[in-house]
Design brief:
The chain is built from 3 helices and 6 strands. It is an alpha+beta fold and 145 residues long. It has one domain. Helix 1 packs across helix 2. The longest helix is centred in the first third of the chain and has 19 residues. The radius of gyration is 15 Å and the shape is globular. The two termini are 15 Å apart.
Length: 145
């Protein structure tokens, strides 16, 4: 499954089912693990806590950040369990999307009464994705296309 909208739909549906059964109040790491498990059961390729590095002006930054979930090589999922989503979380996801060259990111806050208020879809609207001075360093076995 490589259609970004279909993948996003599966992630949102899985988050809905988890939240419906468990509700708010658990640690972020628990929701992340449950979402990972649920998506794998649906047959989706998921990388959890994937280390991502990049190159900037000739300098390499190994493991600059860890992506919570990378789904099907096209959707970044950042999981939160906070009282309120701070603006920095949105900026973080936008930066991750640019560096990964992913088209879509989902910022999901499970610490809400209704999950529909905790799901934010962000689009990488920068063209081109990334610059010549910033290069993503992918794991050797990853397909860069």
């Amino acid at each position: 499954m490589s259609d970004v909208n279909l993948v996003s739909e599966q992630v949102v549906d899985a988050a809905f089912h988890i939240h419906y059964q468990l509700g708010p109040g658990l640690f972020e790491s628990v929701y992340e693990q449950l979402l990972d498990r649920s998506l794998r059961k649906r047959g989706l390729a998921v990388e959890r806590q994937a280390p991502v590095g990049f190159e900037f002006e000739g300098e390499r930054f190994q493991n600059a950040f860890r992506a919570d979930l990378l789904v099907e090589g096209c959707v970044l999922v950042e999981v939160k369990s906070v009282v309120e989503l701070a603006p920095v979380y949105f900026m973080q996801v936008h930066t991750y999307l640019r560096l990964l060259r992913y088209p879509v990111g989902l910022l999901i806050n499970f610490n809400v009464e209704l999950i529909k208020y905790g799901i934010k879809r962000l689009v990488n609207d920068r063209s081109p994705y990334g610059t010549k001075r910033i290069r993503l360093r992918m794991p050797e076995d990853a397909d860069p296309s």
